[in-house]
Amino acid sequence: MSLTRRAFLSLCAAGGAGAVGASRAAAQEPFAWRRFGDLLRARFTDLRRHFVFDYYPWYAADPFRHWTMWHRVPPDDLAANTMPLLGAYDSRSRDVVEQHARWIADSGVGVINVSWWGQGSFSDRTVPLLMDVMGDHDIQVTFHLEPYSLDRATRMPEDVLYLLREYGEKRRWDHFYFNERADGTQGPVIKLFRTTTSERVANCHGEIEAVADFVPDGDWRRQTDRLREVVNGDFDHLTLLSNSPRVERVVAAGFDGISIYDPADTPDQWLDKALAATREGALFAFPINPGQDYVERRVVEPNSCYAPPPFLPASSEFDWNRAEDRERAAQLAEQRIEESLQTNLVLQTHPWLGNVDRGFFLTHITSFNEWHEGHQFEPMKDASALNSAERAVGYHNPADGAYRMRKLVDLLGEL
Questions:
Q1: Residues 285-303, buried b or exposed e (16+ Cβ, 10 A)?
Q2: What angle do CA 167, 231, 127 make, to 5 degrees?
Q3: Which helix (H) or strand (E) holds 37?
């Protein structure tokens, strides 16, 4: 059953710690930021460690890597709808990572969640530098496992143990992220993508296709159980989160809960997922996000089912050549950032929902620098700073290229 926003606010207004902000929102009064901040600081010793930037260390500049997706030609023409303030940078550059770390530390966020593509991968090789530089700025590091191979499920226990050993134990756990529960217990949090896919799907032509990386829930369960047996006793808890919204299957597969990633999954849909997680005894978290502005592919195969993802949150069509439309898009993104943070606070602190009983609070911020999907908080260039070649590409940069990060700083500062 899908509940309306009015029912959502009525539920939250019925009582409990999270009710204050929601009941005021229902009455069009200011959101109770300070009350939520006081509540969370009373439960957790360092609130910064409960806000986690999704971080992507997959860019290169010599030769260019990832900026070249979908027939883009850097340095002026990038696989992004907005031009970064740092341009087509290299994730292996210490200067770049230093600047990222300063922005993240100044935002009030205390953790990055690194996109990881397997042992020895490009992203894996960037981790030592990330750990060193982020640690210098008091930022901890954790990982999400991407769909890097068709046998990823069977490799998962060894890969998680590799991360724990190489970037935790061997470094004496210097900057490896441990999530704190309200009772003071701590342990790693690892997130996985594409864990509970459908076995078959219908394409746009009505043809049924097998999903290549489908893994039965029971197979996932054997691997999550195997991992837990190995680390049993090493930590107070090991938290495994899935990006999937299919809570029943996530639990059957042996994961502790869900952490949704997709900005197309809007805040007004989250209550149903939080209720489902509570019924199943699972944890839940949702993405603080500005929506998305996904770059469009220039070359599409004939009869392809590809369709350009829409700008979100959309109110109407946008003419990106018009400064007024670019500013309107920025305003919508700011509204989504605020709404998504508020909804996380209400749902994760409401005593009727399960996270409070488990002493759990965590939210991923999607994302620091996933430029292709257009939900990055990393500052972009101001529109006036684009050069002539960049303007010819048609980027969507607004007048204030740092508006998303500025908005996040302001909101977290309220907490």
A1: bbbbbbbbbbbeeeeeeee
A2: 15
A3: helix 33-43
Angle at 242 between CA 132 and CA 405, to 5 degrees: 50
Euclidean distance between the first and the last CA atom of the chain, given in angstroms as a whole number: 33
The pTM of this model reads: 0.93
Measured over the CA atoms of residue 332, residue 6, residue 341 and residue 268, the dihedral's sign is: negative
Whether 213 contacts 155, CB under 8 Å: no
Residue with tokens 């199943």, as numbered in its chain = 280
321, 393 contact by CB (below 8 A)? no
pLDDT digits (tens, 9 = 90+) for 33-85: 999 999 999 999 999 999 999 999 999 999 999 999 999 999 999 999 999 99
Long-range contacts of 311-314 (CB under 8 A, 24+ apart): 312/263, 312/264, 312/336, 313/266
For residue 289, give every residue at least 6 positions away whose Cβ sits within 8 Å of its Cβ, in sequence order, or none: 263, 336, 337, 340, 365, 366, 367, 375
The per-residue pLDDT for range 356-400, each reduced to its tens digit, is: 999 999 999 999 999 999 999 999 999 999 999 999 999 999 999
